[in-house]
Design goal:
This protein is mainly β. It has helices at about 1-20, 40-45, and strands at about 35, 75-90, 95-110, 115-140, 145-165, 170-190, 195-220, 225-235, 235-240, 245-250, 255-265, 270, 275-280, 285-295, 300-305, 310-315, 320-330, 345-350, 355, 360, 365-375, 385-395, 400-415. The strands form four sheets. The protein has a 14-stranded antiparallel beta barrel with strand order 2-3-4-5-6-7-8-13-14-17-18-21-22-23. The protein has a two-stranded antiparallel ribbon with strand order 9-12. Strands 15-16 form a two-stranded antiparallel sheet.
């Protein structure tokens, strides 16, 4: 139990130390930023598929019902990081950016028979961007206007959860998360005619909770094949946060600045989320799955500043849908050769935006991934796995910036028999 406590402390301290934005997309200025799923190393190789997946040697926070399948003698520790290169294009202009960092850490062990317990830290959203826009405000006097936009922050979730199998084909589970983070978005506009600067800053600190519930039901087809039907649900609620808007009007010619601060009490929420999945399993060689996630952002009002009024406004956000398909094939999981035990993974997916930009729907996202799970064999451990995957993501919409991103994910699942009893003869 001391090892479990030490791992929990290490997980939270390490992830908190490295928690940072892993995006440089200008689209992260909308809503709560670029949203992430709860996938870990093995999910990422299948492009985020995982609602119907469960095995005794992997952690799957996407569906807490999967925790009940953990092997009785093992303690699992999973950590991952990523790096990405994004190419942007707009009106014939092209530029690129790099980002990356520590992604997540999670652990899983069996507490009782048919009961698994997991804990860790996962990202919820990322905000990170900086860009400049310039143009002519008035053709008559050729007034030039330059606007600089920047933002940073994001939300993280520290969770603890449990999965329980009341009867053999049915598993249920939950995650209870502490959701925390902050964001700061700023815009500064300079006019050449009167040398004035108009600056806006939006900021908020968030400290709340998040609940996730999951279920998995296995349907045997024969001795080697079975289907898993899965569902998850996360209730929406207020974040009890008071977002602020600071407006500063600076006259550089007379060195005078007027600043006004607006606050909306209890102005941020997260939506109700549903997820449905199905997975086909053939022995230990093959598994394929499909997931559908629905986030009801359309019912969430979001803070907006317009014509001197800072208030909650409807119609800025919309319901979002995420569809992923993926699978994994292992030539011979029981072979002595490491090469025959490599797990080959692939997946594709699409996501619809959860926000509007100037009244028009934001960019859709299409993605594909390839990955490998490589067993780590040494003198004392042949159960740990190194996970490597690459993902290509294209995000685009008419008359908006197009993004082509390549992301490299690296994860490690540490699997040890911490709970085995030694016998001396």
């Amino acid at each position: 139990m001391n090892k479990i406590l030490a791992s929990f402390v290490l997980a939270t301290l390490t992830t908190s130390a490295f928690a940072q934005s892993t995006t440089n997309s200008p689209y992260s200025q909308f809503g709560l930023g670029d949203l992430t799923d709860q996938s870990v190393s093995f999910n990422k190789g299948m492009n985020g598929v995982g609602l119907g997946m469960h095995r005794g040697n992997e952690v799957n926070p996407m569906n807490p019902a999967s925790y009940s399948s953990v092997d009785s003698l093992t303690f699992l520790f999973d950590a991952g990081m990523s790096g990405q290169i994004t190419n942007y294009s707009e009106n014939g202009k092209k530029f690129s950016g790099k980002s990356g960092g520590f992604d997540y850490v999670s652990a899983l062990f069996r507490a009782f028979k048919n009961v698994g317990v997991s804990f860790g830290v996962l990202p919820y959203s990322n905000i990170g961007y900086e860009y400049l826009q310039s143009g002519i405000l008035d053709d008559r006097d050729e007034t030039e206007v330059a606007s600089q936009y920047s933002g940073e922050g994001g939300l993280h979730q520290m969770y603890i959860g449990a999965g329980f199998r009341p009867i053999k084909p049915l598993s249920v589970g939950f995650n209870l998360s502490y959701l925390w983070g902050d964001y700061s978005r700023s815009m500064a506009t300079v006019e050449s005619s009167n040398l004035s600067v108009l600056a806006k800053e939006y900021r908020a600190d968030i400290s709340s909770y998040k609940l996730d519930f999951g279920v998995q039901f296995d349907l045997p087809l024969n001795k080697k094949d079975y289907l898993t039907l899965a569902a998850v649900w996360s209730p929406g609620h207020s974040l009890k946060s008071d977002p602020e808007c600071l407006i500063a009007n600076v006259k550089t010619s007379i060195s005078k600045a007027d600043t006004t601060t607006y606050v909306i009490s209890d102005g941020l929420k997260i939506p109700t989320t549903f997820g449905f999945g199905v997975a086909y399993h053939h022995a230990q060689n093959l598994r394929v799955g499909a997931d559908l996630h629905i986030q009801k952002w359309g019912s969430v009002d979001f803070p907006s500043y317009d014509k001197g009024v800072y208030a909650l406004k409807s119609g800025l956000l919309k319901d979002s849908y995420r569809l992923n398909l993926g699978g994994e094939w292992t030539p011979n999981p029981m072979a002595r050769s490491v090469f025959k035990r490599i797990q080959y993974r692939a997946g594709v997916g699409m996501v619809t935006p959860y926000y509007y930009i100037n009244g028009k729907e934001g960019p859709k996202e299409f993605s594909a991934s390839l990955g490998f799970g490589i067993p780590i064999a040494n003198g004392y451990n042949n159960r740990s796995v190194l996970h490597i995957s690459g993902q290509f993501v294209r995000r685009s919409a008419d008359n908006l910036i197009k993004e082509n991103m390549f992301r490299l994910n690296i994860g490690f699942t540490f699997n040890e028999k911490w709970f085995a009893k030694w016998k001396v003869e």
